[in-house]
Amino acid sequence: MPRKIIIDTDPGQDDAVAILLALASPELEVLGITCVAGNVPLPLTHINARKVCELAGRVDVPVYAGCDAPLARKLVTAEHVHGKTGLDGVDLPAPDMPLADGHAVDFLIETLRREPAGTVTLVPIGPLTNIATAMQRAPDIIPRIQQIVLMGGAYFEVGNITPTAEFNIYVDPEAAKIVFAAGVDLVVMPLDVTHKALVTAPRVAAFRALPGTVGPAVASWTDFFERFDKEKYGSSGAPLHDPCTIAYLIAPDLFTGRHINVEIETGSELTLGMTVADWWRVSGRAANALFIGDVDADGFFALLTDRLSRL
After folding, report:
1. What's the pLDDT tens digit per position in 66-82?
2. pTM, to two decimals
3. DSSP assignment of the chain, as one string?
4. Which of 63, 86, 88, 125 has the fewest C-beta atoms under 10 angstroms from its C-beta?
């Protein structure tokens, strides 16, 4: 039986690649895509999600609009990385598929209540506003969640939006604090692992050589955002963050990490949004997350390229 998932997202080129990987993988059943404000404002994120579904030929997957602002803060966006549309790099047509009726948070709650307990995995790859709001509004859904596999945070790689914070957590640290404290089986893909999944020139060329329209679109997206990241990090390619979550669900043996305690900083001006990861287990606090630290990058990109070729 395919594993049932809901992708919570703010596309973003790397979000788009994660969605494509999920839609191309028979091991996964995407029950829906819930959109949140993050990389770009909400009206763009749900448009982008529908564009990606149409690119994949999967207009059957419902796309819901969710929260348009963090729980307690002004929205911070990342057009400086992703471009003014969030999907700059290839010109996709405006989507024909409609936005699903209802709010993303209601969809999350209703789905988790309807499906058998322990059978739905949440895959948040943007700020955690939708997930935290659902938990606050309907605490009964928390024990029904099979697992949460999220992209966010950093420890040894520190921060990418501030000196100490990764973007997804920084945008809504209060939401992240709720999710990390919920007691759910939690897997975290921080910058520590995603910065090892680099889209090098040969890997981009492999995407571009794929038949059809999906591979060239992915190559165009990675070409766009890698200009920013290569200059920033001085690396041989840009990190492909969000698809790591989907790859973990398909092939967890590609990844290694530690069960540790991770706390979210919400009070400090200097370290707001920091994921304080007790990697060396010195705090005495109970573990609440599997914090991933390494990936077989060649295996990851082989999987990604193979699956994209199926769309």
Report:
1. 999 999 999 999 998 89
2. 0.97
3. -PEEEEEEE---HHHHHHHHHHHT-TTEEEEEEEE-SSSS-HHHHHHHHHHHHHHTT-TTS-EEE--SS-SSS-----HHHH-TTS-TTS-PPPP-SPPPSSBHHHHHHHHHHHSPTT-EEEEE-S-SHHHHHHHHH-GGGGGGEEEEEEE---STT--SSSSS--HHHHH-HHHHHHHHTS---EEEE-HHHHTTSEE-HHHHHHHHTSSTTHHHHHHHHHHHHHHHHHHHH--SSEE--THHHHHHHH-GGGEEEEEE-EEE--S-TTTTT-EEE-TT--S-PPP-EEEEEEE-HHHHHHHHHHHHTT-
4. 88
Query: What average pLDDT does this structure show over 34-44?
Result: 98
Catalytic entry in 103, 195, 241, 259:
241
79's tokens? 């057009």
Please tell me whether the peptide bond between 12 and the residue prior to it is cis, using omega within 30 degrees of 0.
yes
Beta strand 255-260 with 289-295: parallel, antiparallel or unpaired?
antiparallel
pLDDT digits (tens, 9 = 90+) for 168-194: 999 999 999 999 999 999 999 999 999
pLDDT above 70 for 227: no
| Residue 241 annotated in active site | yes
